[in-house]
Each structure stands twice: as C-alpha cells, then as structure tokens.
Amino acid sequence: MRIVFAGTPPFAAAALNALADAGHEIVLVLTQPDRPAGRGMKLTPSAVKQAALARGLPVFQPASLKTPEAQAALRAADADVMVVAAYGLILPQAVLDLPRFGCLNIHASLLPRWRGAAPIQRAILAGDTETGITIMQMDAGLDTGAMLAKTVLPIRDNDTAGSLHEVLAEAGARAIVAALANCAAWAPQAQDNALATYAAKLSKEDAKLDWSRPALELERAVRAFNPVPGAWTLLDGVPLKVWSAQVVADAGALRPAAHTGSYAPGEVLPADGERLVIACGDGALNIRELQPAGSKRMPAAAFLAGRVLTPGSRVGC
After folding, report:
1. In the 8-state DSSP scheme, what is residue 299?
2. Are 155 and 133 contacting, i.e. CB atoms less than 8 angstroms apart?
3. So what's the pLDDT on residue 261?
4. How confident is the model at residue 253 (pLDDT cuts 50, 70, 90)?
5. Measured CA distances, 126 to 104, 129, 197, 271, 283 (Å)
6. What is the largest CA-CA distance in the chain?
7. pLDDT tens, 184-196?
8. How many CA atoms lie within 13 A of 251 on its CB side?
9. Which of 57, 63, 212, 294 has the most crowded Cβ, counting Cβ within 10 A?
10. Average pLDDT over residues 148-169
11. Contacts for 199-203 with beta carbons within 8 Å, 24 or more apart?
C-alpha cells in the first residue's frame, strides 16, 4: 500500500519501522517540527523524523494541516491510507477524506476507555488491570472513530508508564501491520460513547504527590508519572522527585508503643536507616528511589546516609 505516515514520539517510530519492514511504500512521513531539547535546548528532530531519515523517506513538518499548502502536499502523495500514531496535530476533515481507505489511528488504550492524550498514564492511575491497542478509523471527533481491531494486554503491578509504553509500542506496530494485511476483512465497530472516559494531557502539577490521598493511589501515581514528568513532592520547600515507591503492608507496626496518636499525611514514620516511610491519608508509602534537586537518582538508603530525616519531619511543604 501507498502510505502517508503521521507520528512524532518513539511509540510512533516503532510503527513506522514495522510498516516499512513489511514492504509498504511510505510515500510521505509527517511529524512535528523540530523542538528545543536537552540542557542546551538544541533543536532536536522527533523520533519519527530520525527513523524516516535513516530509511531515506521524505519528511514533511508542517505546523498545521489546515493550510492549503499542507493539504496540497498530502493530495500529491496520492496515498491509499494514512496511518496516524501520536502525531500531535489535528487532522481536518479535508485531510481525513484524502486517502482512498481513509486514515487509521493506532491508539494506546482499549477504546472507548481513555480517549485522549495520556491513555497509558491514566490507565495506571485508575488502577486498570488491562490496557491495549485499538486500531480505529479516524473521524472528526477525539478518538471517536469506528474500531477495526483490538489487542488486549495486562497492566502488571510493577509497570510504569515507561515500561508499558514499550510494550504497547511493539503491540501497536504489530497490530497496524496485521490490519493493513487484511483490509478486505475490515468490519468497523462503532464505539459505545456511554462507556467513554477521557485521558486528559498531564502537567507537572498533576504529578505533585498529595499525601492526603491513600498510599495505593500514590504508588500508582509514582508509576504513572515515570518517566515523564516524574512524581514529586517538596522537602523543606525544595522539589524532590520520587521514582519508585511501595505501599507499606502494615504501617501500624512502625508505630512506637509510646505513640498513641495518628500520623499526619506527609509525616515521616519511624523506620530503620534504610527506609524512608511516609504517612498518607490511608496507610503509608515506602520511598525506594528518589532524586533531590540537582542530583542523580538514588536509592532512599543512599539519600538517608547523607541527610537525617527524623520521625515527625514532614514532606510536601
């Protein structure tokens, strides 16, 4: 098939490589304009652009697909289908109508659950036990098009957004290749809008740990925000990132006999010098790996070796 591919991050690059390896003719690759990145804020090409250039594929980086120039370029590509994966730009109806077989999206959730920008993170935050890939026909709505295929995958108890992203990227690549290999058997299935949930884009403020929440929810937050933007809290008014944490099964066992009251959310609990245990709204969280501002990631034991946090100290403020 003649394919126009549109995508930006590594999740999309996996699909682009799989389609090229399957023998499809990639006639044009769309990706976001180069963005500043790294400490030097140097203009950096997206993962999709890097993959496309490595294969000698033509790359187009419009700031919008609503302009006559952008639409003329897509029309000239004369594609059978357009494959979209985490592209980041809205496709107007004029673009959706161009390919012979329409536009297909590789979405990292089991639609209609978690439509939107952050389906992987939202699934972990919600405590979902499974997720997957949906191949869908795109329409003018936000991830509302008819579904062609689904791949169901488990969410493991230790999955982070990063580890789940890698699994889903591979699954998405396989799913789109399989879908295009069997286009004659497509049987589009409408989504049930009554079951839809929305995966809103995440901000750095979303990743701030609210110690009044139950420990189980905070443990999910640590996994969901790893690696981006990174869960964080405040210690003496300075940001402290939390990369790994575990719910303490019996926080009450840490309570000294003389302590008869309750611990306030964010209060450091008595523990051995190897563990940093913090009270939550319900239960407690053992911080296993963290990163002070201006430092590298480190185990909690290494952090505690260089800083004394006495029981009763507070984080989050």
Report:
1. E
2. no
3. 58
4. low
5. 27, 9, 11, 30, 18
6. 78
7. 889 999 999 999 9
8. 24
9. 57
10. 98
11. 199/109, 199/114, 199/115, 199/116, 199/117, 199/118, 199/119, 199/121, 199/122, 199/123, 200/116, 200/117, 200/118, 200/122, 201/116, 201/117, 201/118, 202/117, 202/118, 202/121, 202/229, 203/229
In the chain, what are the domains? 2-199 (3.40.50.170), 205-306 (3.10.25.10)
- State the pLDDT confidence band at 287, using cuts at 50, 70 and 90: very high
- Gyration radius of the chain's alpha carbons: 23
Planar angle of CA 240, 124, 113, nearest 5 degrees? 140
Q: Which residue has the higher pLDDT, 30 or 306?
A: 30
Model-level pTM greater than 0.90?
A: yes
CA proximity to 13, closest of 169, 119, 135, 227: 169
Nearest alpha-carbon partner for 240 in 263, 268, 217: 268
Q: Which residue has the tokens 């430092």?
A: 295
Distance CA 39, CA 243 (A): 21
Amino acid in position 228: V
Q: Would the pLDDT of 312 be above 70?
A: yes
